[in-house]
């Protein structure tokens, strides 16, 4: 895994992020793979700061969004996202094209750092 973060500005401010997390929940992800993917999602959610926003997108035969658009990284929203992750199960085929369309189709504000994982 590679994590690249932008440097802090001279005034110490950190640029707010728009983090998009995409996870394959097709049948080929059953067993240890889905558990590892869930652990990675939980870890990524743990890196969010109050000024960040996030999206969660799962895909198999269909694409499922945690919520429409970006969600503010409040304590309640991150907790709800963790519950969404806990409920993911591996089943079905692989519609990666739909997931990529959903992940890359969002408009991001210029002052935010867009990240897709």
Description:
The protein has 117 residues and is of the alpha/beta class. The chain contains three helices and five strands. The protein has helices at 32-45, 75-86, 96-104, and strands at residues 17-24, 53-59, 63-65, 71-72, 113-116. Strands 1, 2, 3, 4 and 5 form a five-stranded mixed beta sheet that branches. A hairpin with a 3-residue loop joins β2 (53-59) and β3. α1 runs antiparallel to α2. The longest helix has 14 residues, at 32-45. It is globular. It starts with 16 loop residues before the first strand and ends with a strand. The model has no long low-confidence stretch (mean pLDDT 91).
Question: Could you give the topology of this structure?
Answer:
Elements: E1 17-24, H1 32-45, E2 53-59, E3 63-65, E4 71-72, H2 75-86, H3 96-104, E5 113-116
Parallel strand pairs: 1-2, 1-5
Antiparallel strand pairs: 2-3, 2-4
Helix pairs in contact: 1-2
Uncertain segments are none
Rg of Cα set: 15 Å
Output the number of helix runs. Answer: 3
Distance between the termini: 10 Å
Give the integer mean of the pLDDT values. 91
Going by helix content, strand content and strand pairing, the class is alpha/beta
List SSEs in N-to-C order: EHEEEHHE
> How large a portion of the residues is in β-strands, by DSSP E?
15-25%
Largest sheet properties: 5 strands, mixed
Shape: globular
Number of strands: 5
Q: Helix proportion of residues, in percent?
A: 25-40%
